[in-house]
Amino acid sequence: MPVIPALRDFLLTRRSVGIAFLKEPGPNAQELRDILLIGTRVPDHGKLVPWRLVVFAGEDRVRAGEKIAQIARKRNPDIDEASLDAERRQLLPAPLTIGVIFSPKKSDKAPELEQLLSAGNVCHNLLNAAYALGFAATWVTRWFAFDVEAQQMLGANGGERFVGFIHIGTPAIVPDDRERPSLESVVSRWPG
Ligand SMILES: Cc1cc2nc3c(=O)[nH]c(=O)nc-3n(C[C@H](O)[C@H](O)[C@H](O)COP(=O)(O)O)c2cc1C
């Protein structure tokens, strides 16, 4: 295989850009298709395809945010207006969000943990795909990824759950890197 210096250098320096700094323009239809194709090209033991994707774009982000806020108010009837407004903007300002749903399949071959890892790979591949197409992105879950009613409202069926919302847009900042673990702290040689 040939060395791909640009890919190596990207992987050595990749980092997320927070949702608040993901602005227009977002991917066009062809770019979104490429991002989805790259995102779903992941290891998948048993070829079970234990994941599905839901795209939130345009006005749907506002409609989904309104419904998230309604559920937030149900969970906390005393919620103040500012917090409610923050809930309404959960899918803003990023121009595009891709929800990744873990959809486990019955299998004698691939335990659920392996299927979950495959879904996590979709999330990270979507991040890398966004950068490959010239955008920035971040992977969040937030409370509504753990609330059954919110998950169903956002597109999950019974037995499924969201494992990530990948927000994608044009970066408004160049973020400082965060601290990374030293290799010495996380890598050891098998002692035999
Ligand atoms: C599964 C998962 C869920 C996350 N959920 C959130 C979240 O809800 N809110 C948040 O601020 N960050 C969340 N993060 C962290 C962001 O992705 C964070 O910006 C990221 O760790 C930055 O690392 P990077 O620059 O190496 O991509 C989550 C990360 C993972 C892997």
Strand content: 15-25%
Order of helices and strands: HEHEHHEHEHEH
Largest sheet: 5 strands, antiparallel
Small molecules bound: flavin mononucleotide
List the helices and strands and how they pair.
Layout: H1 5-13, E1 22-23, H2 29-39, E2 51-57, H3 60-75, H4 81-88, E3 96-102, H5 112-132, E4 136-140, H6 148-154, E5 161-171, H7 183-186
Antiparallel strand pairs: 1-5, 2-3, 3-5, 4-5
Residues 15-16, 138-142, 164, 178 line the site of flavin mononucleotide.
Describe the structure.
This protein is an alpha+beta fold and 192 residues long. The protein is 40% helix and 17% strand. It has 7 helices and 5 strands; from the N terminus they run αβαβααβαβαβα. The protein has helices at residues 5-13, 29-39, 60-75, 81-88, 112-132, 148-154, 183-186, and strands spanning 22-23, 51-57, 96-102, 136-140, 161-171. Strands 1, 2, 3, 4 and 5 form a 5-stranded antiparallel sheet that branches. Helix 2 runs antiparallel to helix 5 and helix 3 (60-75) runs antiparallel to helix 6. The longest helix is centred in the middle third of the chain and has 21 residues, at 112-132. The radius of gyration is 18 Å and the shape is globular. The mean pLDDT is 97. The structure holds flavin mononucleotide. Flavin mononucleotide binds at residues 15-16, 138-142, 164, 178.
